[in-house]
Write the structure tokens for this entry.
Amino acid sequence: MTERHAFQNNDPRLSNIAEKVMAQERLSFEDGVVLYGSADVLAVGWLANHVRERMHGDLTYFNVNRHINPTNVCVAACRLCAFGKKKGTEGSYTMALEEAWETAASGYSEAVTEFHIVGGLHPDLPFEYFLDLVTGLKERFPKVHIKAFTMVEVAFLAKRAKLSIRETLEKMKEAGVDSMPGGGAEIFADRVRHIICDHKIDGGEWLETAKLAHQMGFRSNATMLYGHIENDEDRVDHLLKLRAVQDETGGFQTFIPLAFHPDNTPLDHLPRTTGLTDLRQVAVSRLLLDNFAHIKAYWQMMTPKIAQIALRFGADDLDGTVIEEKIYHDAGATTPQGMRREELTRLIRAAGREPVERDTLYRSVTRTEDSFMVAV
């Protein structure tokens, strides 16, 4: 790590927060509101970087992964989404199982360590389709970790299959699901959720589903969608609710702040987030989520250049190679759909950090050109 200057700030309200951060004391709701409202974003970033380096030094994590979106057909009509389509409409698709397995294989050239599977809430596909999808992937790629199905998808599949959430999770585990992504959390505040994603489970149900999954041995990620109609208090509320569940279960692996991309959505009149907003969000997340080991700068969302800077604003993870990403690109993202491992390591080193290839559970990976070994 490079030599650090002492903390400086132009906002007196940050002084008390800085004392807490240095003493490793937990920040309050009021502290979170101050961090979002402070004009001195560099001071906020300095504090977040201090915590990041205290936890991880210069290490920055990434993985070699493959996104699989088996269907974009969705019964929900979320105003934040450009990915979901109604059944039978132009642009809608549903992969046959063989097609999904071939899609996985097409991104396997770099020996991916993770398949990341999320999709729409399809009105007709039976639960067995998704179980067979996972089973088939495990048979074909036994070493690859399968991270599949958000809390929203679990609740939807449980309802369609007339199963309890626990029974649904049990069947997922039997099929070969290893962990769960963090999508669908959006913003927990009911006032906002009713406007942007009224067709999904509410924030309390999302948190309860995550809690149960953790208790059953699943690890998961957590997300927050910001930059639409929420306010600073909504953001702090969201983060502290995640922190409370993490206190109870310890099951969240990483937090991923996701900027809202308005293009091609019913909210396309809203402006995109600025780079400054993205960096502040990463920093505040690192400071409030003191019990989360990792904060991700999702390069697909914030662009590789901003993600590099985020490695100095509290982030310690750049996500992965991805290969192909549909959800953000349908909403107008102009970043590449995939990035090779060599380019990720170059970006990390150019930011003055040390790249560490990880698997989904943050175990280090050593590899040859077409195989890998996970440290256990």
